[in-house]
Each structure stands twice: as structure tokens, then as C-alpha cells.
Amino acid sequence: MKINKLSIAVVFLSGSMFYAQETKQDTIIKEKKIDGVVIQGSSNKKTETAVLGEQKKAIIQKQAISAEEISRKGISNVEQGLTKVTGITTVEGRGLFVRGLEERYNYLLINGLGSPSNNPFQKIIALKQFPTDVVGKLNIYKTFNSNLYGDFAGATFDIETLTIDKPFTKIEFSVGVNTLSTFRNNFKIAEGADGMNGYLGLNSRDRRLPDEIRNSRPDNYKFTPDQSLNSFKDSWNVDNVKSMPNTSIGFTTAQKVKMGETGNLGILFSLNQGSKFEYKDGDNNQFKGQGKNSFIENMNYLNRKQYNYETESSVLLGLGYKNKGTNVNLNAIYLQNVNNIIEDNYGYKDGQVLNKTTFFRTNQLDISRFLDLQLTASQKINERHQVKAGASYVINNYQQPDRKIIEGNRIDPTTGNTLSNDNIAMRYGGNNIIRQYLDVDSRFYGSAFAEYQLSLGEKGDRKDFPIQIAVGYNGFSDFRKTSYRFIFGRTSTSSAPFVINIDTPQDIFNASLRNGDLYYQEGSDVSQYYSSFYQIINGGYANVNLKPSDSWDILLGARYENDMTLIRYSEQSAENKINLDKNKNFFLPSISVKKALNNKNNLRFSFSKTVTRPILIETMPITYINPDNVNIVGNPAIQNSENYNFDLKWEYFPTNKEMFAVNLFAKRIDNAIERSLVASGNATGSTITFFNAKKADLFGIELEGIFSLGRISEALRSFTLGANATIMHSDVERSQDQLNMERPDWFALTGETLRKRGLQGASPYTINADLKYELKNRNNLAHTFSLVYNVSGSKIYATGGAGTDNYYEKPFNQIDFVYQGQLTKNWNVKFAVQNLLDSKYKILIGDKNYLPTNFEQGNNTLTNYYRGTTFNLTVGYTF
Q1: How far is CA 172 from each of CA 81, 720, 830, rounded to the nearest angstrom?
Q2: The whole model's pTM is what?
Q3: Residue spans of alpha helices (H) in 346-392
Q4: Which end of the chain is more exposed for a tag (fewer CB within 10 A), N or C?
Q5: d(C-alpha 555, C-alpha 543), whole Å
Q6: Where, per UniProt, does this protein localize (predicted)?
Q7: How many CA atoms are closer than 13 Å to the CA of 671, on its beta-carbon side?
Q8: Contact 464, 510 (CB under 8 A)
Q9: d(C-alpha 406, C-alpha 429), whole Å
Q10: Closest CA to 259 of 335, 321, 344, 330
């Protein structure tokens, strides 16, 4: 390593300030991210008991994770926290699944305001980027109410940022080692990425489009030898380093200032910086069928080694003023994620079985910047009237600048022998040298809400008025543009094969550029390199909350939502842009009923209609190119899903710290969106694309319990068991587009039909559990030990086609151990062991193919790898 990776707040701030001073000139535009910070109220809502009490009283089905539980379970980011909730699991690189539904069915709020994704491949922010140091509570809404956005089927997550109960300042440092990734020699990283610029994400400046084409339309520009040498600032070379322990440092301070007789000003500032090394090694295969009398065979048979060096940064600032019935909050969060990826593949692709010595490398930088500025306010006019409003402005950018791809083989062109691991043979031309530039830039994102609440009737001895009415508005505008450009290494002569060291090819390339054997030329399609996405959502709603008695609570809601979506793009080689207008109006009713059978039992029912909007990549009109020829093709014609949701739930609260619940649920999803993986139409490679199903039906049961084991024996009174499980069945009716894609050609002659299947992404079961042991020493300082387990059942990763079965993501069993200890009044320590079982993550092709199989070495794996076991120690000091 060139530097010590200890995070220093002053260094990071100076880096952020330098970034903010850059001018916005190129297609790789900066992205800044800030998530809201609210300082409000003085009551402590952070304890698990308080959160459980709030869940018991709420009219809609709402679950939450308190700051106390976040701390106890050693949760360092929001994504980890949400996986502890009934029916929620995280899936490798694809976000959170709720009740077995893909992430596209979820929506994110931050302090009640809409938040766009900072990644076109995900529906919501990668919540692992959001540190929990400033989280007061994570709210999870699994039933819909009209004041939520209509984009709802799995859940809506609302991150409530930290409330200040008392002033504090906290410094925390963490160090972790992974059994697979840490202290690995020859860990590969892009040249210069392990320096300070790489640590702060500033190395992306060297990977921008060259000046010669940055602000112009593609025109097959041919770079001169001098330009080819000097206009590309980033090297093809790769450094080999020793991967160091993962580290992070955090600083949080919350202060109160007296304002007048009754007012208070709260100030919250938090800074977090961390780095992580991750190594993966496993299969990267693809399969295809050639027709009725053929086999399902390998298209690709590859071994993949991936090296990830990732840094995450966040800066949060909140100002909150409170005076009697007045609350005003100004919040800001900047999030940045930088992932330097080196990926090597060995084997064969595109069915070239005789060429099993193919090698190709991808040198990739993923960087997202997200800045969210929020202003929210509420005013209690009197006991019967209250108003609240809020607005946010987001600057948001995702980039893959200068994604370099190089390809060759492992055979010495002179001797025919296999080359050493560091060397490959290659020749210029044939798309063996490619530079890709992807930029998804937010031109504008704004979100706002306003609500008026009116209470009618007389409370009498009750806490609440019998009739509560709310009318309001919320909506957002999201304008983005996409630029996707290619530069190829070309040659003007017939290039003979030559041998290079794959880690240090730059000198050979430079010599070839000087003597004219190699030059760079842009090869972007002038019609397709650029597209635009415009979406404006305006929603008006009204709620009537009726409480005819202390035991009945009825919430009636109606929401009208207008969705104005416009996609501007071009078909390949077309002269004019296509304007795809998707203007839709939705009326979304909802009803929730709670009957308190007694002070310990609740019975709930809810019904709602909602919509689901696709992830950006699912509708983005580009073909995202991968070197293994597994390309992602967006479908701009994809339609929103329309969902009908039913829930019936019984809750039992034996004590204020215990709970047991049974929830029956069902959903009808019209135009359900599904991922497909099929052979490409050009007979080489595979395509991941997206279609609407005609409809999908789901029904299931959720079980949840939190119990003190002291009920079994007094000797176990310090133990608490929390467990939840979701069991679900789904059934899909395919659309005509899916039938055309999935049905083999010979079915038209034989009359065969496709087998029934479940919804893509829907898991038949999900289990989460944790066992907690808590003790207090003679100084009344708490120590807790927790075992946490989660798993979800086998689910369809992607539907197959042309004779193949579906592709299934197999169960991944994870057990974590967490110790949380308060050593003194000021010092605390956490020790966590994650992924104790070190299970293998894997996606397999199913065993019900419509053709016999002939897999290479009998291997039916699409992809697999181990993640290793991580040991993490965190030490904090609070004063």
C-alpha cells in the first residue's frame, strides 16, 4: 500500500471541498449525495421497548428497528439493519428483498421525502452506504396508506435520522479482517487507485473522456499518435498489493443550544469514512440450447477472479429548531461510494470449446455521488389543527469512466506452450482493446410534501380525537440523461500476435502508439450514445382516521397519482429520436382496520391498490456491454405493474418487551416485471432483459415472535429469542412476449406447453432469528451477546428460454455473532463475526430443462463464490 488507510476527517473534508470546486464540463458529471438529518423531540424513541409500543399502537402495519437494536446487533449500515426485519433479506449486489419480492417493488423515503437511486442497476440507494451513526429509527411499512408514494408492493422504507435527547460527541474506529480477502498477496488494483486520490474517489478525474471528444457528438474520431499517448490519463497497468484490513472511522456530535425561553436549536454533524478489500473466486458460465435434437450446452465456461477495493464516505449535517408546537429542520447528507474492480476470466466463451485458453480482464471504476438537501417543518396551530411540509433537492450521478477491457489467450504464439499466469498473447484489432464510458447523470431531482391535519369530535377521556382527517400532496421530478460511449484500439496493418505481461502492458501499448501499429478511435453509435429519462410524479391524497371507540381504529385513504414519464432515445442507426410517452393516472384506494381485542391482542386487516415502477436499467434504452458477452438490454416499453394487496394479522403482546404475530397476506400483480436470461439474437453471448408478465398471484404467511426465555426457566431470564419467518407461494401467467421468448421453437409442432412457475425473485421462505444474552455488571454497565441467523429459499434469478430451465439463486445460510459491551461510562466496544458458516453463494440452471444436458464437466453452475468470514472490532469513545 502506498499510504496508511486510516481515515482522517480533515483530509476527507478537504477532498470533498476540492471535488465541489470542479467545473461541470464533461459527460462524467459529479454526483453528490446527502441524506436528511432530523433533530426533533425530546422523548426517547430509540429503545426496542418504545419501538415495539409504537408498532402496537399504529393503525397500519409498521415495523421498526430502534437505535438500541442497531447498536446491540452490531449493525453498521442501514442495509444490515433492515435484514433483521420479518421477511426481509439482502441479495448479492441487488439490494433488499421483501416477502421474496425483488428490490424493484420497494421504495425509499428519508425523513418522509422521496429519494432517487444513485445507481441505475438498483431501485433505491445502496443502503449499505448509509451509516447508522445518525439513524434514530428505521421504519418499514408493509401495508400501504395513501400518504405514501403509490410505488409500493414489497415495502416502503423510511429512514428517520437521529433525534437529540441529550448532547454527545462520539468517535469510533473499526478494523476488520476477512479469512478470504485480507492479507492476500498480489491483490490487484488499478494503478494509482490505492493512493490518497483513490481513497477519496478523486482518481475518477483521470478517467474522464479525452478533451478531443468530451463535449462533442460521436463522429468516429481518430486520435493522433500524440493524442493517443497523452489524452488518456489513466493507465492500463495494474498494481499488485497486499490487501490490508478493512478500516473505518466515524465522528458524530450532537449539541443543543437554548433559544429564548422555550426554544432549542439542535446541531448534528457526522463524518464517516471507510475502506474494504474483497476477493471472489468462482465460476462464470452461460448455457444455450440449439434446437429440438440438440443439448443444453455451455456457451461460456469461465473461472472468474474478482478484486474489489471499495471506499465509502459520508458527511451529514442537521440543524433543528423546536419551540412548543413549531419544528423546523434543515438536513444535508453527502454519500460517496467508489469501487475499483479488477476482474479476470479464464476459459472459453461464445461456444468456442476448442479455445479453452481465452483470457480477458476488466479494469472498472464504479463511482456514485449523491447530495440530498432537505428542509422540513411542522406547526401545531392548536390541539385540532396541524400543518407540515418539506422539500428536498438532490444532485445525483453514477459513472463507470474508462472501463478498460483487454482480451487475449494463454498460448505462446511461438512455442504453442501455455504461458505463465502473468502473461497472455494478443494482437491488435478484433475488439481486443476497448474503453467504455458510462455516465448516468441527474439533471434535476426535487421532492416535496405538504399536509394539513384536522381533528374533529371530542376526546373525552381518550387520548385521541374520534375523527382525524388529513389531506396532502407529495411528489417528485426526476430528470436524467445517459451517455454511453466506446473507444477502441485499432490497427492499420495486420497485427502479428505478441506476448505481454497482463499487469504491465502500458509500455508496449505506448511503443505501438508511437510507431503507428496501434491507435485509438471512437466507435460509439451516434444515434444511441445518448438518451434522456424524464419522470414527474404528482400525488394528492386524503385520509380519514375513525376511532369510534378505544378498541376500534379505521383508516380510510384515497390517493390520485399522475405519472408523466418520457423516454427519448434512438434505435440503432436511426436519424431521429423516439419520444416514448407513458402518461398514466392512478386511483389508489386503501383501508386499514385495527381491532384491539384487549390490551394485549390486536387484529388487523388492510387492502390497497398500488403500482410498481421499474428500475432505471430495466427501462433504459441501452445495451450494456460486458466482455463475457452477457449483455444487459433495457426495455423502454416496460409497463408499470398494478398491485392489489391484502393483509390479515393477529398480534399478541404478552409484555412490553415481547410480541407474537401471525400475518396472512396475498397479492395480485398485474404486469409483473421479470428478469430473463436468454441467448442473444446474434448467436453469440447471452442477454439479460426484462418483460412484463400478464399477472402474478402470491399468498403467504408471516410469523414473528420476541420472547424472554425466562418463561421457560428463571435461569434463562437474561436470554431473549427473536425469530420471524415468511412462507409464500407464487404463480405467474406469462405474457405473449414471455411466451415467445421462453417457448422452444418445436413446441409449435409437438403441442408441448411450458411448465408453470413462480414469480421471478420470489422466495418460498425467509427466516431471520437472533438469540440475545444480556448482563449488567456491578457498575450497571450492559454487555450483550447475540447470535443472528438468516436465510431465504431458492428463488428464480432469471427466467430461461429456448429450451433451458430457469436460473435459481440457492439458499445462503448466514450466522453472525455480535458482542456489544459498555466498558466504562465513556468507552464501548463491539466485536462481530459475520458469515460464520462461510456458505457458498451460487446460481444454478434448473434441472427441468426441455432438452437433455451436456454441461462442461457436469457443471450446472451459472455463478458461484465464497465470501469468507469477517472478524470486526469497533472501539468507541463518547463524551
Answers
A1: 19, 28, 10
A2: 0.88
A3: none
A4: C
A5: 7
A6: Cell outer membrane
A7: 12
A8: no
A9: 11
A10: 321
